[in-house]
Amino acid sequence: MRIVCIGGGPAGLYLGLLMKRRHPEHVVTVVERNKPYDTFGWGVVFSDAMMQAMRIADPESAAEIEDAFNHWDDIELVFKGTRQRTTGHGFIGIGRKHLLNILQRRCETLGVELVFERDVESDLEFPDADLIIASDGVNSRIRARYAEQFQPDMVIRPNRYIWLGTKKAFDAFTFDFRRTEHGWFQAHIYKFDNETSTFIIETTEEAYNGHGLGDLDQQGSIEFCEKLFAETLDGAKLLTNARHLRGSAWLNFSRLICGKWSVFNGKSHVVLMGDAAHTAHFAIGSGTKLALDDAIELANQFDRHGHSRDKIETVLDAYEEVRRVDVARIQNAARNAMEWFEVVGRRYADTLEPPQFFYSMLTRSQRISHENLRLRDRTWLEGFERWFAARSGIAVKDGDRVPPPMLTPHRVRGLSLANRIMVSPMAMYSAQDGLINDFHIAHLGARAMGGAALIFAEMTCVSPDARITPGCLGLWNDAQQAQWRRLVDLVHSVGHAKVGIQLGHSGRKGATRVPWEGIDQPLVSGDWPLISASALPYLPHSKLPRAMDRNDMDRVRDDFVAATRRAAAAGVEWLEVHCAHGYLLSSFLSPLTNRRTDEYGGSHDNRARFPLEVFKAMRAAWPSDRPMSVRLSCHDWTEGGNTPADAAIFAAMFKEAGADVIDCSSGQVWKEERPIYGRLFQTPFADLIRNEVGVETIAVGAISEADHANSILAAGRADLCAIARPHLADPAWTLHEAARIGITAMSWPKQYLSAKGQYETNLARAAAAAAQEMSK
After folding, report:
1. Active-site option among 429, 583, 677, 759
2. How many whole angstroms separate alpha carbon 693 and alpha carbon 691?
3. If you count Cβ atoms within 10 Å of the first and of the last residue's Cβ in the chain, which end, N or C, has fewer?
4. How far is CA 575 from the centre of its chain?
5. H-only helix segments in 123-235
6. Is 154 exposed, middle or buried (0-12, 13-18, 19+ CB in 10 A)?
7. Tens digits of per-residue pLDDT, 352-389?
8. Helices (H) and strands (E) in the chain, counts
9. Kindly report the CA angle at 468 between 462 and 474, in degrees rounded to 5?
10. Which Pfam families does the annotation name (predicted)?
11. pLDDT 10s digits, 77-125
12. What is d(CA 46, CA 56) in angstroms, rounded to the nearest whole number?
């Protein structure tokens, strides 16, 4: 085949040498606009896994690259007058110019033609090529030419950064955060040869403009940064090799995703590679890794399907299918890290203490978890756990195992919780006439013995017409109150758990069948009138609700207050008002379901007016020493609906009205929603509201392991974790997860003590067997 690589960066060079090495009959040309052995940029970072892949792909270049690498294990944070360090992270760095020079020499040795100082305008300049590799960077002209086919999605991110270097060799991957009168600046610093380090400085647009950096030339920007980071530079100068850029050389990062990676131009197959196809933020240093992995996978697919022209289309389809998955994974982690740095000032740096800020920074991409940190640096993590426990009021003796964050106590108003895990409200639809029955007693009693600190029943309705289905719980009469007292007494008699109630009204989503008879489907008979913020059905064939008038509002408010008083009399210790998932109060908050033109519709203040009225009345009726939370849908996942920014506005309103905690869920407001699911997918909402609004939060959604909960709590992303489906599968989830991570001091019900030791022993045996298998 005749192969042309447009762009002589890592992707083009590495693909060229791999294809020539594996099939010498190929005629391979790499075309680069710069001069021979010349490049821009400073250092790049690799992982051990990347090096292993390169050793397999081309041992010769891998050996030379490894000889040039600088290795370090430590990460150091400079923040608020402190220096903190952790080890075990395993980075390797090399100068970008040195890396490309090695690849260029390897190409020449194998017989790849290198063409320099040629600026390619179009792929059509190579009509005899069978395969054209568009590796011409994030501003790819080739991709732009076929934009309709490649479907590029380019987003310019808000932060500014400048990529510099310094003749000072840092012995750790160093992050330096500096606060100025206009905002925070952070430096990402790492060594890539014996005397030189990369020095990337990043800040917000507000700080950039506040300091007038856009009005400076490069030298002015460098002098500003040298003064700001003088303590860390310790006399060293900052250097640039981007004098070709005009102005101050501050850039915005461009996030790129393409819908398709290859096209046939009529004569040649054209495929995107490296930054031309996708970008990953420097916060996790994976741009070069992605480029090299692209090259390795494409060469591997040719090995698998055949190095001939007739196989190109099959190869390119397989290449894209495989790489798209790994790229999405890396881009997701890079997005998490990038967004952390974009909001670091207002969300974390201003509010978190140095130890927790460091933990948050280390776990910013969500690829590193609590237990992964323990594997990397047990000493550091156990020191952090000791600090976290001390803040929770636990004094741990030297030599004793420190409880992980999820098992530390937490106090809200006058209520003390034994740990940070709660059983989330989960609808069982098994009541008759709203009454708790033997099923609920067995169901919730089992979970009360399972180690969680707070037990919630399902949403409990404040009137008969507030029910979602005929099987919903209620609290509108004396019989229901008596059964709630029965539940409270049971929970208190079997362990340390406290009891919470979530009060709600179904609104437009009411009068439906129980889910196993047709989820969200309207009742065939025995239904009741519905009310909502506006006269909009949930499904096209759902029962039409009536838009509430003032009389309706008065009645509903009074129903909530009456149920609140009954809950308090029954001994319930935590009250939550349900303002999420498209139910009645939620229908006022979302512009999708609130089309009113009176004082209860339109602005945030108007849409929140009635829910806040209900909340304030409930707060006045609820004992002052008992906590009260609000469950919010923090994202409607639909164009025109509420976003996390809207949720933060509402959270601030409820905080001012007396809410102690915001329970951060999302969705179920509009049937055509398109949620983006994934591990911990709703935790960012709790993080935003906790750290920007300044109110405690509950994280909920796809939290299934102790490692998840500990990571969330330790980083200060939430104060409590609500576990739902895992608690359905395992009533003793908290006890079992504690045992799985080696916590043996947690109390089990005395009736079950004979099983505790055996359970822990079996876990230890399984872990030992797995470790032995891994060592083979």
Report:
1. 583
2. 6
3. C
4. 28
5. 141-145, 147-150, 205-210, 218-228, 230-233
6. middle
7. 999 999 999 999 988 899 999 999 999 999 999 999 99
8. 26, 31
9. 30
10. FAD_binding_3, Oxidored_FMN
11. 999 999 999 999 887 888 888 899 999 999 999 999 999 999 999 999 9
12. 16
